[in-house]
Automatic annotation (TrEMBL):
CDD domains listed in its UniProt record: AdoMet_MTases
Biological process terms in GO annotation: methylation
Organism: Micromonospora vulcania
Name by which UniProt lists this protein: Class I SAM-dependent methyltransferase
Keywords: Methyltransferase, Transferase
InterPro entries in alphabetical order: 23S_rRNA_MeTrnsfrase_RlmA, Methyltransf_11, SAM-dependent_MTases_sf
Length: 252
């Protein structure tokens, strides 16, 4: 098999594989990413044991919430991407969670002070005012978020040199939380090594994590994908770095 035929097959595999939900199992054996040291799923499970009513914002396919061993009395999740809504509903049946479809940037469809715990893993955008509104006094918000310049090496391999990142800074999240009256009690940061062993894994990742290369399509960036394939075959696996931060805040 020629190198060009091989790259075509790899790109085709990454293009055809489903990207529903928020699991990354398809990358097994093809890509790896370090996990943040704080263990977000474990922290969520711990907070859930103390909650009576809880909300998971931008639940994806419900992967994190489904692992909660002792769900609270009332457990609700929101999701804005239609293909994920049905995935989440199936996934979260076992923990008795209700999944509500919410349009991006729409207000949360819940009454004031509805929840004593709100969690969110990798939200598209945190609406701090809405988060504070639906939290009960004494309630907690816990979120693992994407940090600035995440996977920048991969973005630049496709797009070329980029300006310094202007969004997703942890300090701005702290300021936004405080601006709506929340008390930030914890902030942690992590830089995590990600390794891609073939260009098919890159294609699948870019289809799923759409903010890495906004507007990504294979046809649009085929020359860059071929160049990346040649780089991997001559230099070894492609390494990038994901940025994450954990923020926890309470409603006074």
């Amino acid at each position: 098999m020629s190198a060009e035929r091989n790259v075509a097959d790899l790109i085709a595999e990454g293009s055809a594989a489903p990207v529903d939900g928020w699991g990354f199992g398809w990358l097994a054996g093809r890509a790896t990413e370090e996990r943040p040291p704080w263990g977000y799923a474990r922290l969520v499970a711990d907070r859930m044991t103390r909650a009576d009513t809880a909300l998971d914002v931008d639940t994806g396919g419900g992967e994190v919430l489904a692992e909660v061993p002792r769900p609270p009395r009332l457990l609700t999740a929101t999701e804005g991407w239609p293909p994920n809504v049905e995935v989440a509903r199936r996934t979260l049946r076992r923990v008795g969670a209700t999944v509500v479809a919410v349009a991006p940037d729409a207000p949360l469809p819940f009454r004031d002070a509805s929840f004593d715990l709100v969690v969110s893993r990798h939200p598209v955008r945190t609406d701090w005012a809405e988060t504070a509104r639906v939290l009960r006094p004494g309630g907690t918000f816990l979120s693992q978020q994407i940090g600035p310049g995440t996977m920048r090496e991969l973005s630049e391999a496709i797009l070329g040199p980029l300006p310094p990142p202007a969004q997703r800074h942890p300090e701005r999240a702290v300021a936004a939380a405080r601006a709506v009256g929340l008390n930030v009690i914890d902030l942690r940061r992590a830089t995590l090594r990600a390794v891609f062993t073939d260009v098919g894994a890159v294609v699948w990742f870019l289809r799923k994590v759409i903010w890495t290369v906004p507007g990504f399509t294979v046809d649009r960036y085929r020359p860059q994908l071929h160049a990346l394939h040649r780089r991997i075959t001559t230099e070894g696996p492609f390494v990038a770095h994901a940025q994450r931060f954990l923020i926890e805040a309470t409603h006074p």
